[in-house]
Write a structure and sequence with these properties.
The complex is a heterodimer of chains A (193) and B (264). By secondary structure, chain A is of the alpha+beta class. Chain A has helices at residues 5-14, 27-35, 91-94, 96-100, 124-142, 169-182; strands at residues 39-47, 56-62, 72-78, 110-111, 120-121, 144-146, 152-162, 184-188. Chain B has two domains: 3-126, no CATH class; 152-256, FdhE-like domain (FdhE-like fold, Alpha-Beta Complex). The chains are: A alpha+beta (193), B alpha/beta (264).
């Protein structure tokens, strides 16, 4: 009967012998194996979000996928198999781990009032209300229906949108729909990656 | 012509001696492996004295004649199981060594210690020659050696193999001819699985430059030596030194793609 390698080792250990397939004594190795602190890490291919070059990255995430364990990104490196960057990353891309794990990341909205010299925290509801009020006030006051030659243009020239490089496709889709519906023409969302 | 190969064997021997002297759990395995590497180097040096044809069928007599050194080493310091096999070969007819080599070449098995140890020295030497390399068939899949069609013994992450220090390129090292070839990251070298959710690696702070790359689809693994973490490592030797990880992987239901010459 053909015995698998794994079964062979296990049988040997159970029998007290602890031998490798070729008969080597692996008892000390077995003893150390029992004391090893082992952690599982997974590698995920992704694309650097920073610019339109679209470099490939590999994200290393520590965690054994247990329900009570929170996966944690421990390393981000350039993907050596990616045709664009062949493993290289610019300094900004090389620091991607800090984009994911950063205690300086803002986790709530802030506002700097006119004339103020500092930012203050506000809650989401207040932020959304204030933004909506400002957008409506500005748009109503400055909306252009016809240009200087009398042609219908229906545009809002006093509001602009500048998207961030880490914005997702889904966010950018909503941004374009929203800004176009408002008549905003000064629109940049870096939707090139 | 074969100076580079001699240097490679010397580096392996020195690394095995160094790791064995540290008296870790795998010290006895490494002492044996250092002795085996010395015999393999002698085989390599002996065969390098005159050109080889590159065809195993044509070179088999010269190659099998070199098996005696390996057999003697096993009798002196190998485990009883291998020593018994060595005695059978030594006491058998002269054609036994030859038949073993040809049988192994036609149907590779990591359970065949003697022809594997012998052919590692021969095939690596031949791969350095300008003449045709031994080849059972053209390797159609990239997870087998493009030189001889063998299974990978281990995987290497080498930052110097890629364009910059960021992102280590991966290479596989053949268990038969010790040649390395590039292989993609985040792919199972056994079944070709690319599903990141079922691929992963296990590592321990005890052996920070050695990791166990596993595939939960085919339940197989191989060890990876990360030269970015320890540039002094010699992959073939450090793979043996990482024996505790082999035991751990076996206990957790993973089967190695190709056993090494220690049988782990």
């Amino acid at each position: 009967m053909e015995i698998s390698r794994r079964a062979f080792l296990q049988t040997s250990i159970a029998g007290g012998a602890a031998l490798s397939v070729f008969g080597f004594d692996v008892a000390p190795v077995l003893a150390q194996a029992r004391t090893l602190k082992i952690s599982r890490t997974s590698e995920t291919r992704s694309t650097c979000p920073y610019c339109s070059v679209s470099c490939g990255v590999i994200i290393h995430t520590l965690g054994d996928r247990a329900k009570n364990a929170v996966p944690q990104v421990v390393h981000v490196e350039g993907d050596p198999d990616h045709p664009i960057n062949r493993g290289t990353l610019c300094p900004k891309g090389a620091s991607l781990q800090q984009d994911i794990l950063n205690d300086r990341r803002l986790v709530k909205p802030q506002v700097r009032r006119p004339g103020s010299d500092h930012w203050e925290d506000i809650d989401w509801d207040t932020a959304v209300d204030e933004i909506a009020r400002s957008v409506k006030k500005t748009r109503d006051a400055t909306f252009v229906t016809r240009d200087s030659r009398g042609r219908t243009v229906n545009r809002c020239e006093s509001i602009a949108w500048a998207g961030g490089c880490t914005d997702t496709n889904e966010l950018n889709y909503l941004v374009v729909k929203t800004m176009r519906s408002l008549g905003v023409v000064s629109l940049e969302n870096q939707a090139r990656v | 012509m074969f100076h580079g190969k001699t240097t490679a064997w010397r580096r392996r021997i020195e690394r095995a001696d160094q790791l064995a002297s540290e008296n870790g759990p795998a010290a006895s395995l490494l002492r044996f492996y250092a002795r085996l590497l010395r015999e393999q180097q002698k085989v390599c040096d002996g065969l390098a004295a005159s050109p080889l044809s590159g065809s195993i069928e044509a070179d088999v007599d010269r190659v099998s004649d070199c098996m005696h050194g390996i057999l003697r080493a096993i009798l002196e310091c190998g485990p009883e199981q291998l020593a018994a096999d060595a005695r059978k070969i030594l006491n058998g007819p002269g054609s036994v060594s030859r038949d073993l080599v040809l049988t192994y070449w036609g149907n590779r098995s990591d359970r065949m210690f003697f022809p594997k140890a012998l052919l590692q020295a021969y095939c690596e030497l031949v791969s350095q020659q300008d003449s045709a390399t031994p080849r059972t068939q053209a390797a159609a899949d990239e997870n087998t050696c493009p030189n001889c069609g063998g299974q990978p013994q281990l995987s290497i992450l080498d930052p110097s193999a890629s364009a910059s220090a960021e992102g280590s390129a991966r290479q596989l090292q053949c268990a038969t001819c010790l040649v390395t070839w590039p292989f993609r990251r985040v792919v199972c070298p056994s079944c070709g699985n690319e599903d990141e959710r079922t691929l992963g690696y296990y590592e321990s702070p005890t052996l920070p430059h050695v990791r166990v790359d596993t595939c939960d689809r085919c339940r197989r693994y191989l060890k990876t030596i990360d030269l970015g973490r320890l540039g002094l490592a010699v992959p073939l030797v450090d793979e043996v030194a990482g024996a505790p990880l082999d035991v751990w992987a076996g206990q957790h239901g993973y089967e190695k793609i190709e056993l090494n010459l220690i049988g782990l």
